[in-house]
């Protein structure tokens, strides 16, 4: 759905070049939620702005829904952009307009008739759970409600793709969760493809199917979240699901991302006559799946065979 290839963006600042994007390849499949996470200055906002051509990349191409945006300009580009909604960290609402007036704004710009606007605004406010707030002004709303207005406005022209620029960064944890749940519902109900940027691992954990870790204008890692969790040494996996640290130096970290019918631990002790000691760990819901990460100590003559057995059964085994 989104295919950006070889994206480079160089800004000229104070007489020197700043490379904000350094040959980034991004592929977001139709219907998925893709999160880009990284520290401040990593290039996340630049990437998002290059995807909808608010910023023209210095090099590289961007295709969205099969159309090459980098080959367009003027009215054609503005038309293509209607298929891409955007939500902002600080909501970007018009304070003089009501909630309904804010949501109607892009429809007015697009020349939609008054009757159609009214119907569409009603549908959109219902979709985001604000049908009783139509006549209020942004100043009368909570942060979460403002973001719901921002989301409704972004969906006004029925885009197939939604870009989210730190949509939950200004919100408290509980409101963040409810906005993320809303995004997940919209993704499923409307088959909406979502590309979001964030600096919060929780966002990736809660709703993303795929993710990339951005560092100095590049993707240090990218892929399906569950695949990354099964990738030895993945930084993203470690940040997503850190293992509780233990005093023991000989622990083995094991990560299990699939449901297993086999009682693996008791099988280990039976088959290989090893002692298994759980030093710490947790089970969390990540990308819609229960993922377990344990720090264990396995002792016995057949320790290596036991670890091999775990690997054969799809468990990621990382020795200290
Ligand atoms: N218009 C600009 N002119 C010059 N340099 C810029 C411009 N916009 C961004 N940069 C630089 O490009 C780099 C990437 O910035 P960008 O805003 O994309 O990072 P980010 O990961 O989104 O950071 P943050 O989370 O703080 O918004 C930074 O070094 C930044 O200073």
TrEMBL record:
Q: Name one GO cellular component term.
A: plasma membrane
Enumerate the Pfam families for this protein. ABC_tran, NIL
The UniProt record lists the ABC transporter domain at 5-241
Work out whether the entry's keyword set contains Cytoplasm: no
Q: Which UniProt keywords apply?
A: Amino-acid transport, ATP-binding, Cell membrane, Membrane, Nucleotide-binding, Translocase, Transport
Instruction: Outline the subunit composition.
Output: Homodimer. Forms a membrane-associated complex with FtsX.
The entry's protein name is D-methionine transport system ATP-binding protein
| Native organism taxonomy | Bacteria, Bacillati, Actinomycetota, Actinomycetes, Streptosporangiales
């Amino acid at each position: 759905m989104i295919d950006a290839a070889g994206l480079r963006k160089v800004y000229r600042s104070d007489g020197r070049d700043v490379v904000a994007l350094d040959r980034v390849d991004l592929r977001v499949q139709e219907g998925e939620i893709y999160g880009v996470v990284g520290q401040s200055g990593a290039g996340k906002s630049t990437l998002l702005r290059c995807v909808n051509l608010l910023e023209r990349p210095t090099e590289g191409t961007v295709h969205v829904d099969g159309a090459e945006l980098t080959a367009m300009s003027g009215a054609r580009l503005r038309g293509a952009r209607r298929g891409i909604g955007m939500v902002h960290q600080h909501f970007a609402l018009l304070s003089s307009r009501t909630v309904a007036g804010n949501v109607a704004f892009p429809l007015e710009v697009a020349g939609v008739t008054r009757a159609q606007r009214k119907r569409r605004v009603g549908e959109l406010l219902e979709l985001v759970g604000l049908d009783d707030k139509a006549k209020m002004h942004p100043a009368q709303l909570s942060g979460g409600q403002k973001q719901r207005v921002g989301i409704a406005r972004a969906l006004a022209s029925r885009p197939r793709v939604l870009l989210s620029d730190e949509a939950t960064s200004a919100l408290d944890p509980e409101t963040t969760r409810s906005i993320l749940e809303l995004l997940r519902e919209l993704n499923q109900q409307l088959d909406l493809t979502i590309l979001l940027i964030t600096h919060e691992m929780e966002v990736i954990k809660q709703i993303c199917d795929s993710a990339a870790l951005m560092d100095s204008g590049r993707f240090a890692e990218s892929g399906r979240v569950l695949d990354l969790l099964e990738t030895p040494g993945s930084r993203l996996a470690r940040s997503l699901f850190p293992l509780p640290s233990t005093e023991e130096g000989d622990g083995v970290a094991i990560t299990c991302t699939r449901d297993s019918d086999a009682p693996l631990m008791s099988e280990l002790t039976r088959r290989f006559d090893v002692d298994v000691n759980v030093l710490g760990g947790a089970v969390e819901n990540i990308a819609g799946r229960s993922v377990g990460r344990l720090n264990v100590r396995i002792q016995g003559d057949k320790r290596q065979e036991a670890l091999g057995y775990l690997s054969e059964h799809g468990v990621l085994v990382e020795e200290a």
